[in-house]
Amino acid sequence: MAVIGVVAANRLVSSSFHRLDIDLGRPFTFRPGQFVMVNGAGPRALTFSRPFSILAAEGSVLSLLYRVVGRGTAELAAMAPGDAVSVLGPLGEPFPEPMAAQVTILLGGGVGLPPVHAWWRRWGRPGDVACFGARSGAEVPWDLLGDAWRVSVDDPDGLAPGRRAEVGVVTTLVPEAGELPATSPVVVLACGPLPLLRAAAALARARGWRCLVSLEEHMGCGYGVCKGCVVRVADGAGERNATCCHDGPVFDAADVCLLAPREGGSA
Ligand SMILES: Cc1cc2nc3c(=O)[nH]c(=O)nc-3n(C[C@H](O)[C@H](O)[C@H](O)COP(=O)(O)OP(=O)(O)OC[C@H]3O[C@@H](n4cnc5c(N)ncnc54)[C@H](O)[C@@H]3O)c2cc1C
Ligand code: FES
What we know:
By secondary structure, the chain is mostly beta strands. It contains 4 helices and 16 strands. It folds into 2 domains: about 5-90, Elongation Factor Tu (Ef-tu), domain 3; about 105-255, Nucleotide-binding domain of ferredoxin-NADP reductase (FNR) module (Rossmann fold).
């Protein structure tokens, strides 16, 4: 059941990323990769809630990171401290915990940052590689990333003084296989636009690494009922439908037909 929380803070953290902190009035726990369905409360409610990955949760305060793309996110951006907001979750399958000797490569593109950032904060270890890609220098939320993240930008315009970013796609930040410990299994965790997920899946496939992706399909209910978020996944030699909200949003990239076209399967 959805909980009615109260906006604690809602502010821009870069040129186009907003951070929304919602006080739910009771402790909130989650696993990195999970998401919540968010809506206005009362007369501000839209017909459908919108899904957002969980960036963080401290005590009763849940934090999200979003970009305004349409009506629902514009409504969020207009919310002020004290406004009521409806939250359902945590929902969905999270990213897995790391194995003992695993090296993890985190790839976040744009507002695909929250699930990989949450994983890195919870499980990240020295030797893991955290990479973030933005459209422009001005879009990079440096307060969240600090110095630990490698950053790439399509366009360096607006890069904060003293900050460094590669110009190019985020996968160019990934070290060569020879730069990583030879005996450690490498796992890539990625979230972002489809081209990023495809590039991450292809890179991992080429290097024999496992790759898990968090998909951002359009959603209606968020818990497996409306079938509005179906994705095609591998099933033995064939394919089947899976719901992004209930079976995912985290999937093995090798199973997602959109990312790993299989012989005879859909592209
Ligand atoms: C599991 C999950 C986690 C997500 N996490 C975040 C997050 O942390 N931060 C964030 O900003 N966004 C996130 N999204 C995307 C977010 O849900 C959409 O941006 C939001 O629903 C758009 O609502 P709107 O009413 O503002 O836009 P709409 O009016 O519904 O759409 C505006 C435009 O955005 C496109 N769009 C809408 N939803 C999606 C989507 N899911 N994927 C790609 N394009 C879309 C539409 O096609 C349209 O072009 C997530 C989506 C999913 C499924
Ligand atoms: S959003 Fe309804 S089934 Fe996934």
